[in-house]
C-alpha cells in the first residue's frame, strides 16, 4: 500500500513555517484543522423546526466556515502560523484574554497542482438513505456529490467502490480515474437493507490497504447518514477503526448527508490523522461545496500540530477549534492534520486571571508549537501573545486585531448555544407541565437569550453582513425553544413532507 502523503512534490515545496507575531497576514490560500468543517447539520434542523442536540454545536465547525486572517505580512510559505490577543467577556460574562492562532498558506491557488489520490468510495446504500425513493433524500445528495467528485478525478488517480447495507461488498476494484466504468458502477449501486456501517468501513479500509498503484495518497470517502444499526454502533469503535487506519496512512473524508445525521458519531470520527468531515442537507448545496472545497479537502499540508502554553499572570481555561470534543481543557493541545482551505483558519485559547481580577500589562502566553510536514520533516517554533496594557473600553473589550473579535464572537455564540441545547435536553417537548419541565425550558431560553443579545452586540462591532446574517439566523433557534419544539434529528422522517431546505451557510 502506498502511504498517505507519500509524495509532496506535486503538492508544493514545504518551506519553514512563518511563525512571526503579526507575520502571516492575508495572501494565498488558507489552512484549516481537520475535523468537522461546518455547522450545516444544525442549521438544516433549525430550518425544519427542530432544536439540534448539543453535539451538533461545534466551535471547529463554525470557525471553519469563516475567513479569519490575522493582519500582517503576506504569507509566503506552505503553512504559516500567527498569533494575536484580545480581551472580552466570555459567554458567561467572565473577563477573558483570547489568543487566536491563525493558520494560512502562501500556496498560490492558480498554480496549485494537487497530489494524485487513490480513493475508495464507501457508500451507504441502506434503506434510510432512500436510493430511488424520490427527492430530498440523503441518497440524492450522495449521488450528486459522487458525480461531482468523479468529474474531478483524472487518469492519474484511482477509484474503488465499496457499498454497505445489510452486508458490505466491493462493488468496483481500483480503476483508473478516467475510466467510464466508475460512472457505470455508480449508476448500478445496490439499494436497501440495514446499515452495517462498521462492516462497510472495515471493507473499504481493507480495499485501501491492498492498493498497489502509483497515487501519492490513499483516502476513503464515506457517504452516509451516520446511523449504523447492524454490528457495532458505538462511536468509540468507529473512531478506533478510523484512527488505526490513519496511522497506517489511509485518510478519510466523511460526508454526513441529510437531516438524520448522528452528530456525535459524525464528529467523533473526524479528529484523527488524515480525517475531515462535511455535512450537506440538500442537493442544491453540492455545487457550492465543490467550488469552495475541491481540491482542498484532499490536500493535507501538515500533521501532528502540537501547542503547549506557558502563561504569565493568567490561567489557561480552554482551547477551541481543536477537532474532537468541540473544545479542550488540556494545556497541551493537538491538531492531527492541517488541510488547505479557501478560508484562513483559527484556533482559539481562553485565559482567566486568578480570582477574575483585572489583566495586567504583560499578561498573556508563550506558545510552543511543533508539527511535521506531510513528509515527516519536523518544525519547532514559538509564538508570543501579551497584553500591552491599553485600557479596556466601557464594555470590557480590547480588540486591536479584528480577527480576534470575530473568532471570539463565533466561539462564544457556539458555546452558548450548546449550553442552551444541553439545558433544553431536560425539557420534554409536548410533555407535562411539571415544574421540572418548565424550569428546563426556561433555563434553555434564558441562556440562549443572553447569548444572542451578546452576539448581536458583537456583530454590530464587526459590521460585516455575514455576522449580521448569523445573528438573524440563530434567532430562529430561540423561537423554536420558546414554542417547545422537539429536539434531536429527523432520522427516519418522511422526506416527502419536508420543504426544500435552503443553503443557510454563512458564506
Helix-strand blueprint:
Blueprint: E1 30-33, E2 35-36, H1 40-47, H2 59-64, E3 80-89, E4 95-104, E5 117-124, H3 138-152, E6 158-164, E7 168-176, H4 181-186, H5 197-209, E8 217-224, H6 235-247, E9 250-257, H7 263-268, E10 275-280, H8 285-293, E11 300-312, E12 315-320, E13 327-328, E14 332-341, E15 345-352, E16 364-373, E17 378-386, H9 402-424, H10 435-462, H11 465-482
Parallel strand pairs: 2-10, 5-6, 5-8, 8-9, 9-10
Antiparallel strand pairs: 1-14, 3-4, 4-15, 6-7, 11-14, 11-16, 12-13, 12-15, 16-17
Helix pairs in contact: 5-6, 9-10, 10-11
Protein model, in words:
By secondary structure, the chain is of the alpha/beta class. It folds into three domains: 30-110 and 299-399, Immunoglobulin-like; 117-252 and 260-272, 3-Layer(aba) Sandwich (Rossmann fold), CATH 3.40.50; 404-482, no CATH class. It is built from eleven helices and 17 strands. A seven-stranded mixed β-sheet has the order 2-10-9-8-5-6-7. Strand 6 and strand 7 form a beta hairpin. Helix 9 (402-424) runs antiparallel to helix 10. The longest helix has 28 residues, at 435-462. The two termini are 39 Å apart. Mean pLDDT is 89; it is low at 1-26 and 499-507.
Amino acid at each position: 500500500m502506498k502511504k498517505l502523503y507519500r509524495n509532496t512534490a506535486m503538492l508544493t515545496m514545504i518551506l519553514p513555517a512563518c511563525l512571526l507575531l503579526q507575520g502571516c497576514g492575508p495572501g494565498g490560500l488558507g489552512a484549516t484543522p481537520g475535523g468537522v468543517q461546518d455547522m450545516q447539520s444544525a442549521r438544516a434542523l433549525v430550518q425544519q423546526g427542530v432544536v439540534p442536540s448539543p453535539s451538533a454545536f461545534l466551535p471547529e465547525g463554525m470557525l471553519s466556515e469563516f475567513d479569519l486572517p490575522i493582519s500582517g505580512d503576506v504569507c509566503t510559505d506552505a503553512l504559516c502560523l500567527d498569533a494575536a490577543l484580545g480581551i472580552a467577556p466570555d459567554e458567561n460574562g467572565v473577563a477573558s484574554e483570547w489568543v487566536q492562532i491563525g493558520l494560512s498558506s502562501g500556496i498560490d491557488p492558480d498554480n496549485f497542482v494537487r497530489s494524485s489520490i487513490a480513493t475508495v468510495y464507501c457508500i451507504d446504500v441502506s434503506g434510510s438513505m432512500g436510493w430511488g425513493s424520490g427527492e430530498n433524500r440523503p441518497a440524492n445528495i450522495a449521488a450528486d456529490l459522487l458525480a461531482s467528485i468523479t468529474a474531478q478525478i483524472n487518469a492519474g488517480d484511482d477509484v474503488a467502490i465499496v457499498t454497505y447495507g445489510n452486508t458490505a461488498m466491493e462493488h468496483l476494484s481500483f480503476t483508473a480515474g478516467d475510466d467510464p466504468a466508475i460512472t457505470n458502477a455508480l449508476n448500478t449501486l445496490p439499494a436497501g437493507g440495514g446499515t452495517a456501517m462498521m462492516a462497510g468501513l472495515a471493507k473499504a479500509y481493507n480495499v485501501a490497504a491492498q492498493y498497489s498503484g502509483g497515487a501519492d495518497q490513499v483516502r476513503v470517502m464515506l457517504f452516509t447518514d451516520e446511523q449504523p444499526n447492524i454490528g457495532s454502533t458505538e462511536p468509540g469503535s468507529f473512531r478506533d477503526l478510523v484512527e488505526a487506519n490513519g496511522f497506517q496512512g489511509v485518510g478519510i473524508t466523511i460526508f454526513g448527508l441529510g437531516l438524520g445525521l448522528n452528530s456525535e458519531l459524525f464528529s467523533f470520527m473526524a479528529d484523527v490523522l488524515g480525517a475531515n468531515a462535511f455535512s450537506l442537507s440538500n442537493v442544491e448545496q453540492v455545487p457550492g461545496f465543490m467550488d469552495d472545497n475541491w481540491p482542498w479537502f484532499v490536500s493535507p499540508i501538515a500533521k501532528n500540530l502540537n501547542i503547549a502554553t506557558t502563561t504569565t499572570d493568567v490561567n489557561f481555561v480552554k482551547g477551541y477549534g481543536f477537532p474532537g470534543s468541540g473544545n479542550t481543557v488540556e494545556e497541551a493541545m493537538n491538531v492531527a492534520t492541517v488541510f488547505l482551505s479557501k478560508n484562513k483558519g483559527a484556533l482559539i485559547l481562553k485565559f482567566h486571571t486568578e480570582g477574575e481580577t483585572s489583566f495586567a500589562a504583560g499578561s498573556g502566553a508563550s506558545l510552543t508549537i511543533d508539527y511535521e510536514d506531510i513528509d515527516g520533516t519536523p518544525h519547532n517554533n514559538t509564538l508570543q501573545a501579551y497584553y500591552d496594557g491599553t485600557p479596556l473600553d466601557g464594555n470590557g473589550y480590547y480588540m486591536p486585531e479584528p480577527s480576534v473579535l470575530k473568532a471570539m464572537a463565533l466561539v462564544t455564540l457556539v458555546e452558548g448555544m450548546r449550553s442552551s441545547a444541553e439545558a433544553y435536553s431536560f425539557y420534554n417537548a409536548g410533555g407535562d407541565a411539571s415544574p421540572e419541565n418548565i424550569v428546563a425550558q426556561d433555563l434553555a431560553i434564558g441562556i440562549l437569550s443572553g447569548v444572542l443579545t451578546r452576539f448581536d452586540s458583537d456583530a454590530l462591532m464587526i459590521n460585516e453582513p455575514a455576522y449580521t446574517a448569523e445573528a438573524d439566523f440563530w434567532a430562529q433557534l430561540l423561537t423554536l425553544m420558546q414554542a417547545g419544539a422537539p429536539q434531536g434529528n429527523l432520522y427516519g422522517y418522511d422526506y416527502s413532507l419536508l420543504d426544500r431546505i435552503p443553503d443557510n451557510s454563512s458564506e
